[in-house]
Amino acid sequence: MFFTYILYSKSIDKYYVGHTGQTLDERLKKHLSNHKDFTGWVKDWTVYHYEVYDTKSQAYKRELEIKSKKSRKFIEGLKSSTG
Question: Taking the model in full, what pTM does it have?
Fold first, then answer.
């Protein structure tokens, strides 16, 4: 099982889009840990939205599709469409 996920940080009012083969809890813990990547310095990431896929390539393709929109409105529409 693979996930495409969107994290949200209220403190910086930003979204982060990614994909993983880990559980969402494991992946979120890594984002919240002290590391040098974009998400490492923010400590209030929460899972905003996720989608489940059978293959890594499907999850990665969806990540790229979401990122290609470059649209906050699009991302916020995903949340409302899934409840």
Answer: 0.91
40 pLDDT more than 90? no
Residue type at 80? S
The DSSP bridge partners found for residue 45 are 9
Q: Say whether pLDDT at 11 is over 90.
A: yes
CATH for the stretch 2-82? 3.40.1440.10
- Enumerate the domain spans of the chain: 2-82
Q: CB neighbours of 79 closer than 8 A, spacing ≥ 6?
A: 48, 49
Q: How many CB atoms lie within 10 A of CB 55?
A: 11
Contacts of 68 (CB under 8 A, 6+ apart): none
Measure Cα distances from 58 to 37, 45, 52, 76 in Å.
Answer: 24, 24, 9, 21
